[in-house]
Design brief:
Blueprint (H helix, E strand, L loop, with lengths): L1 E4 L8 E4 L9 E11 L1 H7 L16 E8 L11 E4 L2 E3 L19 E2 L11 E5 L4 E2 L6 H4 L5 H11 L5 E5 L3 H12 L3 E6 L4 H9 L4 E4 L8 E6 L5 H8 L1 E9 L12 H4 L4 E4 L5 H10 L9 E5 L3 H9 L6 E5 L1
Parallel strand pairs: 10-11, 10-13, 11-12, 13-14, 14-15, 16-17
Antiparallel strand pairs: 1-2, 3-4, 3-8, 3-17, 4-5, 5-9, 6-7
Helix pairs in contact: 3-4, 3-8
Length: 327
């Protein structure tokens, strides 16, 4: 099979021919149709997440059809379309797994990090951690939901019932969550880079009530905020414009340092929180909601061999919506 492979961090991916993978016990073999390109892939390539399996086939927003199954794998029929998220395996017996917090499992394995992912023509995955894809979604349109959507969904739930919610950064995840938040009757306030008028217009077009630069104050205080950009100072920027009781949530797996701030900005039962990974329940709930909204993903489609260019579009901050590889 053809695959884009990371041989060493801080180097471009290489298009290589690899042996076809074989599914093990409880695994399915997928013929990949599309794979989303995530900011986490950028963190892996750039060495900010420092312990990937190497060499590695990245990619953890996989949509494909079942082409085979290992011993004991019976959840899906041949030809059935499924999605594979970032969380690829958990132990099932630790105190996190047995208390509904499998996203925190210390032994968890992650797709496109600990095991090969979807920047390839074929992939294998634990069938327990695969999701059925709604029939009315295209392969390319569904792929960003499997991380940008699911991790964002978990962040939105962690933000509580915030009526006035701020989104810092407006890329793959935020443009999905904006639609869901508006559907739920929330008022969305979006913060982008200074001068990003196109991104601000994009946000307003998806239902945001207000959009401006990250250094600006919104017209009203926020009841909660999600920081999608991996920029630590945005956590305190959100805190400064938040009402009492607000919860500020980081949706990223990597972020630059958060600067110190006076306690008076936190006082009033405000809080800072982070989201780690996802649970299967998050996936099931989000994918059930997506057709009801309905969520429409804006995507920039690249062929498999152009994965480096897709990653660069995220690195350069010039991508509106999500990047997807068509395989």
């Amino acid at each position: 099979m053809r695959a884009m492979v990371l041989r060493r961090q801080r180097e471009p991916l290489r298009l290589l021919n690899l042996p076809d993978p074989e599914p093990g016990r409880g695994q399915v073999l997928l013929r990949v149709a599309a794979c989303g390109v995530c900011r986490t892939d950028l963190h892996i390539v750039d060495g900010e997440l420092s312990e990937p399996k190497l060499p590695l086939v990245p990619g953890h927003q996989i949509v494909g059809t079942v082409a085979g199954a290992g011993e004991g794998a019976e959840r899906f029929a041949p030809g059935e379309r499924v999605g594979v998220p970032w969380l690829g395996w958990t132990c099932g017996v630790c105190r996190y797994c047995t208390s509904g917090r499998e996203n925190l499992c210390d032994r968890a394995k992650f797709t496109g990090y600990d095991v090969d992912g979807g920047y390839a023509e074929l992939a294998v995955a634990d069938e327990r951690f695969c999701f059925r894809i709604p029939a009315n979604m295209s392969d390319e349109g569904a792929a960003p939901l499997l991380c940008a959507g699911l991790i964002g969904y978990r962040a939105l739930r962690l933000a509580g019932d915030a009526e006035r919610i701020g989104f810092y950064g407006f890329g793959a995840s935020a443009h999905i969550l904006c639609q869901l938040a508006v559907h739920e009757g929330r008022r969305v306030f979006v913060f982008t880079r200074e001068g990003d008028e196109a991104g601000q217009a994009f946000a307003r077009g998806l239902g945001a009530e207000w959009a401006g630069a990250s250094g600006e104050a919104p017209p009203e205080q926020l009841d909660g905020a999600i920081v999608f950009a991996p920029v630590g100072p945005l956590m305190t920027a959100a805190l400064r414009v938040s009402a009492k009781g607000a919860r500020i949530v980081s949706a990223g797996i990597h972020m630059s340092d958060i600067p110190s701030f006076p306690y008076e900005q936190l006082w009033g039962e405000r809080s800072l929180a982070s989201v780690a990974n996802l649970t299967r329940r998050d996936g099931e709930e989000c994918l059930a909601l997506a057709p009801q909204v309905p969520i429409e993903t804006r995507i920039e489609v690249h062929p498999l061999e152009a994965a480096n260019e897709a990653i660069d579009s995220i690195r350069d901050g010039r991508l509106e919506g999500a990047a997807v590889l068509r395989v």
